[in-house]
TrEMBL record, chain A:
Belongs to the ETF-QO/FixC family. The keyword Flavoprotein applies. This is FAD-dependent monooxygenase. One of its GO terms (molecular function) is monooxygenase activity. It comes from the Bacteria. Keywords: FAD, Flavoprotein, Monooxygenase, Oxidoreductase. Its cofactor is FAD. It comes from Chengkuizengella axinellae. Transmembrane segments: none annotated. Residues 367-431 form the FixC-like C-terminal domain.
TrEMBL record, chain B:
It comes from the Bacteria. CDD domains: ETF_beta (cd01714). PROSITE patterns: ETF_BETA. This is Electron transfer flavoprotein small subunit. Residues 22-217 form the Electron transfer flavoprotein alpha/beta-subunit N-terminal domain. It comes from Chengkuizengella axinellae. Its cofactor is AMP.
Length: 431, 275
């Protein structure tokens, strides 16, 4: 007779591990199954770890977790071909513990995190693929793996199997993802000596910088590029919705080369040695793409539940928070001895009440609007660049005339009415 | 029947680099794995157990984190794992390693007899293939190297029949039991482990012995102190240059090879068996 657990968690990313950790801490019998050689071996993200939600799982984690740098500066670049308009917020208080956010390398961090769950009593199995949930009488009762004698049972199964959740699809919880619901991101880890990074980004050893690049970084398509600083490397990546890539006939590897060779980017990565090349899908469909979150004996967390805030590039924090909420639901279900759909429905309520539900609702129309209205990335960013450049080019024109000239850059090309309409539309979806 | 397999944790040399300046191995971030030859050895042990009954133990000398590698052996199907781990063992060459493992065997033999010892042909970090025969010599049992098949085990008659791979053919030999076999990868592929093994391995805690847990150990024979091997120089082997690809049909190719060989009479001057 195969063994039975209280909880089986499929996947060892931030959502799955948060859930496994919390359940194991509460004394539940937990089995976590990961398909990669080790947790983190198949996971990709830009690299910003949000302190708050991580701290909710493991207090004072920064004291022994493999974090890279504390982020003290967040820059945003609106790129044109040979110019850019930038904003930056820098605050050295963010370096004081507890820091605001950290950069991390997932291969290292996920291993560390999963090991914390193991220390808490969860069993971790790597290199094992879960093929499907075992369903009996309409209830998920376990999982079937690709190994011989591969069935294993549990009261509840948590699907933390990532963006393309095959298990949720097999249960009929969500359909095949549409190209406009996912972003395809490619990323390189570029090795550079510590002091070179410190000089180029104007930081000290433990301080980090994030740069988000808009506009020409994606050749005007909906998406972003990013540069994040690790201790002795940079994470440089770029992604757009899959639909934009298809429409613009862009190849991801060409796009990342384009970013690396951009005149505004090149000086930052000069001399760097490419150490890793990664690619991944990111769920960007937001609120409308969220699948059914619970069922009889099953819960969905993290990317599998499409919980990503594309506008603020937040995902790992939502993953951890959803994993934690799932664990709380399971612990309460265990006390009741009831894992029915009705009992587990409290998970959905908790998600919608949390910042996950609130934020995804707030931006529910943002991605769709920007996808359908390409002018924001394609037209306005170059216009802002032209306006700002002409305003600051000293050529004997009076400042008053310069102002007029700058404003005309927008109204002449688009017409006052269109500009006001676009501004209103942007405000509406972001408000 | 009690089968014991000797295993070692090694750096994954498929991705290891040699630092060109210092000529030492750059081990930064290189994962530690179960020596690939040893995984075939463990599998061979597990298959013997399935055929004849009994149990499989693995034994290793290594750092405390080698526990992970022992768990890998449990995934393959080993029943028990023993790790000898102590700073006294550090820096050992093959002589000192075989002495330490021999002492571990003595300790294991207090619990139950050992019928067959299996080792991988060699490790991928040292490539010497000396530790297995060294253990056999110390235990005074026959070492049989380059085994590619275990034909038969007769527990009653205390005999095994195995097939060896030689440079110029195969050899079938019979040996008394207990004996020590070092096996080639050809002996058997490593199966995809069943799920219950994976779960058992995730829970498994091997027995760890420090030097003082072993009996009558002569510490002078351990670790760096007990190692007469001197590493005179380390270098990355130069890349082979030249070479020629011979094309055409079978007849043309063999003609060309023969004529190329005839151009080099020095190849045929040395007596066979020199190297």
């Amino acid at each position: 007779m195969p063994e039975k657990f209280d909880v089986i968690v499929v996947g060892a990313g931030p959502s799955g591990t948060s859930c496994a950790y919390k359940c194991a801490k509460a004394g539940l019998k937990v089995l976590q199954i990961e398909r990669g050689e080790y947790p983190g071996s198949k996971n990709v993200m830009g690299g910003v770890l949000y302190r708050k939600q991580m701290e909710a799982v493991i207090p004072e984690f920064w004291k022994d977790a493999p974090v890279e740098r504390a982020i003290v500066e967040q820059r945003a670049w609106m790129l044109d071909k040979n110019s850019m308009v930038t904003t930056s917020v820098k605050n050295n208080d963010w370096e004081k513990e507890p820091c605001n956010n950290y950069t991390i390398l997932r291969a290292k961090f996920d291993q560390w995190f999963a090991n914390k769950a193991v220390e808490a009593g969860s069993l971790l199995i790597n290199e094992t693929v879960v093929l499907e949930c075992i369903v009996e009488d309409g209830k998920v009762v376990g999982v079937r793996t690709d190994r011989p004698d591969g069935d294993v049972y549990a009261d509840v199964v948590v699907l933390a199997d990532g963006v393309n959740s095959l298990l949720a699809k097999k249960l009929g919880y969500h359909n095949e993802l549409k190209p406009e619901e996912v972003a395809l991101t490619v990323m390189e880890v570029l090795n550079l000596p510590k002091n070179v990074i410190n000089d180029r980004f104007n930081v000290t050893d433990n301080q980090g910088v994030t740069i988000e690049l808009f506009g020409d970084a994606t050749k005007g398509n909906l998406g972003t590029a990013f540069i994040y600083t690790n201790k002795e490397s940079l994470n440089l990546g770029v992604g757009t919705t899959l639909s934009s890539m298809i429409k613009a006939k862009m190849k991801p590897y060409e796009l990342i080369e384009y970013v690396k060779n951009h005149p505004m980017v090149r000086p930052f990565i000069e001399g760097a040695e490419s150490a890793e090349y990664l690619a991944h899908l990111i769920p960007e469909g937001g609120f409308y793409s969220m699948p059914k979150l619970y069922g009889n004996g099953v819960l969905l967390v993290g990317d599998a539940a499409q919980m990503v805030n594309g506008i603020h590039r937040e995902g790992s924090n939502m993953a951890m928070a959803s994993g934690t909420l799932a664990a709380e639901t399971i612990i309460a279900a265990k006390e009741k001895g009831d894992y029915s759909e009705e009992t587990l429905s409290s998970y959905k309520t908790a998600i919608l009440d949390s910042f996950i539900g609130q934020d995804l609702k707030k931006y529910k129309d943002a991605n769709h609007t920007f996808e359908e209205q390409p002018q924001y990335f394609k037209d306005y960013i170059p216009m802002i660049n032209r306006a700002a450049s002409s305003f600051l080019t000293v050529d004997g024109t009076s400042k008053r005339d310069k102002q007029k000239e700058a404003i005309k850059t927008f109204t002449k090309e688009k017409g006052t009415f269109t500009v006001v309409k676009d501004l209103y539309r942007a405000w509406k979806v972001m408000k | 029947m009690h089968i014991v397999v000797c295993v070692k944790q090694v750096p994954d040399t498929r991705i290891i680099k040699v630092n060109p300046k210092t000529n030492t191995l750059d081990r930064r971030g290189i994962p530690a794995i179960l020596n690939p030859f040893d995984s075939h050895a463990v599998e061979a042990g597990v298959r013997l157990k399935e055929k004849y009954g009994g149990s499989v133990s693995v034994v290793s000398m290594g750092p405390p984190n080698a526990v992970k590698m022992i768990r890998k052996c449990v995934e393959i199907g080993a029943d028990e794992g023993y790790l000898i781990s102590d700073r006294f063992f550090a820096g050992a060459d093959t002589l000192a390693t075989s002495y330490a493992l021999y002492k571990a065997f003595e300790k294991m033999l207090e619990e139950k007899p050992v019928d067959i010892i299996i080792c991988g042909k060699q490790t991928i970090d040292g490539d010497t293939g000396q530790v297995g025969p060294g253990i056999a010599r110390r235990l005074d049992i026959p070492p049989i190297t380059n085994v590619i098949e275990i034909k038969e085990v007769d527990e009653k008659a205390r005999k095994v029949i195995v097939k060896r791979k030689l440079e110029d053919g195969y050899e079938m030999i019979e040996s008394s039991m207990p004996c020590l076999l070092t096996v080639e990868k050809d002996i058997n592929p490593v199966s995809y482990s069943p799920l219950p093994n994976m779960i058992r391995a995730a829970r498994y805690e091997p027995t760890i012995w420090k030097v003082d847990d072993l009996n009558d150990v002569d510490k002078k024979q351990l670790g760096l102190k007990g190692s007469p091997t001197i590493v005179a120089k380390m270098f990355a082997p130069p890349k082979l240059e030249g070479g020629k690809k011979i094309e055409g049909n079978a007849e043309q190719q063999s003609r060309e090879i023969v004529s190329l060989l005839l151009e080099k009479p020095e190849l045929f001057e040395k007596k066979r068996g020199g190297a």
